[in-house]
Design goal:
261 residues; mainly alpha; Pectate Lyase C-like; 2 domains
């Protein structure tokens, strides 16, 4: 059983055990909203969407399965809290203290985490797509790579580029990430960024002995640097260049579909 399956099975088993995860204590919820002081409280499965909880004391609180989407938790103290399966989609966690917290299977998509501390935090299978302010220690490089590939296939090039950037932050010598981000940026209309990325991919591929990929990266970069005259006049991408980008992207997806980290 792989780690993802194990984590999901553990979560489901925990939720199914009688009394293992109780419903929220309404008195505790009212206490939290009124005072922002609720250390050790039972807030399991509490509905706290858009809640104003900046600098709240939630040390070792049980927030498993709670809905804190779009909540303001700036500077909140969540050390040792149980946040397993919690929804923090779009939440503001800037400067929050999350050391030792359990964030397994938590939804952190679009959350703002700049300045948050996460020493000893469990993040297995947490959803981190689109999260802002992630440190390189957060999340698995293979997850960001897979999300980038999925976004490329769905032609969501901006999201693909963002996820490739997260891969690069964690593994700066991984040439395919520059190659993929270059293709995504080109498709999104960022010619300058695409050139820089494909040239860096070419350099890394060459240094690593992958001459075939280096040659493809060079062709893309050259085409972007010296577009045909009709493209210059229109200020966009011609069919020939778009075809080249499409072919290169297909090669990329075929040769590097799964990360080997």
């Amino acid at each position: 059983m792989n780690s993802k399956t194990l984590a999901i099975a553990t979560l489901l088993a925990t939720l199914s055990l009688p009394g293992a995860v109780q419903a929220e204590n309404l008195d505790h919820t009212r206490q939290l909203l009124a005072t922002r002081q609720c250390s050790g409280c039972n807030l399991s499965r509490a509905g706290l969407v858009f809640a104003e909880l900046s600098y709240a004391n939630l040390v070792q609180a049980d927030l498993s399965g709670a809905n804190l989407s779009r909540a303001n938790l700036q500077g909140a103290d969540l050390r040792g809290a149980n946040l397993m399966g919690v929804s923090l989609n779009g939440a503001n966690l800037a400067g929050a203290k999350l050391d030792g917290a359990n964030l397994m299977a938590a939804d952190l998509r679009g959350a703002y985490l700049a300045g948050a501390t996460l020493e000893g935090t469990a993040l297995d299978n947490a959803l981190l797509q689109g999260a802002i302010g992630l440190s390189p220690s957060m999340g698995k490089v293979e997850d960001f790579y897979k999300w980038a590939i999925e976004a490329e296939r769905q032609k969501n090039y901006v999201v693909a580029a963002e996820n490739f950037t997260q891969v690069i932050h964690r593994k700066p010598t991984f040439a395919p990430a520059y190659f993929g981000r270059g293709a995504a940026r080109a498709q999104a209309g960022d010619r300058k960024g695409a050139i820089a990325d494909t040239r860096e991919a070419e350099r890394l591929f060459t240094a690593q002995g992958d001459t075939q990929s280096a040659e493809v990266a060079n062709k893309i970069a050259t085409a972007l640097e010296k577009p045909p005259e009709e493209e210059k006049k229109r200020g966009g991408f011609g069919q020939m260049l778009l075809g080249l980008l499409g072919s290169a992207l297909q090669l990329f997806l075929t040769r590097f579909p799964i990360p080997f980290f």
